[in-house]
Specification:
single chain, 304 residues, alpha+beta, OB fold (Dihydrolipoamide Acetyltransferase, E2P), 2 domains, globular, disordered N terminus
């Protein structure tokens, strides 16, 4: 069943009129809405994973761009009957939880240790407990990595804004300003959880998926059933490729010495891999290439 919206909040983006790149405002708003919908589902998991929050667009105001959003709550009911006010309590929890997160980020520019978010975790768990809608007090805290990923998405959504812009989260009782100076990337999140790194060098054959013609960006290779990002550290070979002394065609592969690094967290779970192509041994031409007078090249973006 679906409940009627109980609580509204507003996402506001301020901008200077007459500035360039107007799409930045709408990209920010679009990504913030998506991020807050995901954040709602993670917040609500502290209470009951069966409850699904659904965002509804209520209004959009111009001047500064204000988007008013309401929340409906879906649930698959069973024998655990909540009190009659549970939907109102959960809706209020979601609004307060998002406010606490935005407010928490206002006083910092980065997160360099997982323990920095422990007070926020505890605060959000306490908010969940205050709803008192469960028969048993088993309100789980949001997993640190999930919370950090949500915070990273907030940071990413605000990255389009420039000097003079601003953004706020507004409720009926409070207003919290988004900290545009705060930055947290997915790569930096991974680094926070690394406890041990095991590294080995191996000779691998990898099929080229995406190349970089101009800079030092990662290449993308097909390795087994996966696409993997690979850094090219063989600068001599890379220079030959970028100056057209070596050509790569669709379907070609590279045999080379690759440094593989496996990253593990404190519970010995594999949380990430790094691939670094140290030395190119040879370019292996596609079997179809000899059958075609003009084999298809990579496009201008280095994509097959």
């Amino acid at each position: 069943m679906i409940d009627q919206p109980q609580v509204d909040y507003c996402l506001e983006v301020n901008f200077e009129k007459g500035t360039e790149s107007p799409s930045r405002v709408f990209r920010t708003m679009h990504e913030m809405i998506d991020t807050f919908q995901l954040l709602d589902s993670h917040l609500i998991s502290s209470i009951d994973i069966r409850i699904e929050p659904v965002l509804l667009l209520e209004d959009i105001e111009s001047g500064s761009v204000k988007t008013w959003i309401s929340t409906k709550l879906k649930i698959v009911p069973d024998d655990a009957i909540y009190n009659l006010d549970w939907k109102k309590l959960v809706g209020s929890f979601l609004v307060k939880g998002k406010y606490r997160i935005v407010n928490f980020l206002e006083g910092t520019t980065s997160i360099t240790n997982v323990n920095q978010i422990k007070p926020l975790q505890d605060d959000l768990q306490k908010l969940a407990q205050e709803t008192q809608i469960r028969m048993l007090p088993d309100y789980k805290p949001i997993e640190p990595r999930l919370l950090l990923e949500d915070i990273s998405k907030i940071s990413s959504s605000l990255s389009y804004l420039t000097t003079g812009d601003g953004a706020s989260y507004i409720t009926n009782q409070d207003r919290a300003r988004f900290n545009l100076e705060f930055k947290l990337t997915p790569e930096s999140i991974e680094e926070l959880f690394i406890q041990e790194v095991l590294t080995h060098d191996d000779t691998l054959i990898m099929k080229v998926k995406k190349a970089d013609f101009l800079g030092d960006s990662m290449w993308e290779f097909r390795f087994g059933e996966r696409n993997i990002p690979v850094r090219i550290s063989d600068k001599e070979w890379l220079n030959k490729f970028q100056t057209n002394k070596v050509t790569i065609q669709a379907g070609d592969a590279i045999r080379g010495v690759v440094r593989v690094s496996h990253k593990y967290d404190a519970d010995h779970n594999l949380i990430g891999d790094n691939y670094d192509l140290l030395s190119v041994i040879e370019v292996i031409k596609s079997p179809q290439e000899g059958q075609a007078a003009h084999p298809p090249p990579l496009d201008n973006h280095g994509i097959l």
